[in-house]
Predict the structure.
Amino acid sequence: MRASLIQFRVEEDESVDSRRRRAAALVRDQAGVDLVVLPELWTTGAFAYERFATEAEPLQGPTCEVMAKAASDAGVWLHAGSIPERGAAADGADEGPLYNTSLVFSPSGELAAFYRKIHRFGFDKGEAVLMGAGTETVTVRLPETTVGVATCYDLRFPELFRSLVDAGAETLVIPAGWPERRRSHWTLLARARAVENQAYVLACGTAGTHAGVPQAGHSIVVDPWGEILGEAGADEEILTVEFDPAEVATTRDRFPALKDRVLGLERPHR
Ligand SMILES: NC(=O)CCC(=O)C(=O)O
């Protein structure tokens, strides 16, 4: 199986329309690979908090339309990264909540799945207060592998990945807008999630500087043994990696640590 991670450059001097056109062209260039991945919030920048509301769009809005066409033109599975989604308004409300929502398309351009980021970054500001939290984990069956999806800050929460593995995930796809100042955590956590879950990790970051926050880049693909199959540099780059999905079952058979899990250890605080 071949996957291309598009480590997209997001700078403030480019319009959202231009970013959409450029991203779609990059996706089309990947015809022939099986899976293409874009990063988190590439239409706005993950740290451009003031743009989340102004650039928010419905789930099936302009980015969905452009990416569906790009996926079908290229004939690829496309994890199109995430958008600031404006959800439906509750009865009596003027506006619906915002979500950080990932979109996954089939090679015929159907929206196969969407995932609303569960762990919002920023503690008591930024995304954590501006966006609503997703409540559902998401897996998507591709012909060669079952993909579990998560977004950026989610990478710090191993229990989410365990629940994806319990739902059958073999390949964990993580779009991100991870900052340069915590790059060592990015690489360490991507490898940790691969080793502990005996799964492939495809983690796609951004290049450039969003709202004054320099991005780490360094998109990475890790195999179920924790070995790095490919790693990008800091600037815009397409990282294409070939991997064998059958290695997940082989690793889990030969070193069956997942079978030794002791479940039910969570206890209420005393
Ligand atoms: N966009 C994000 O989720 C940023 C996460 C981050 O900077 C971190 O976990 O560190």
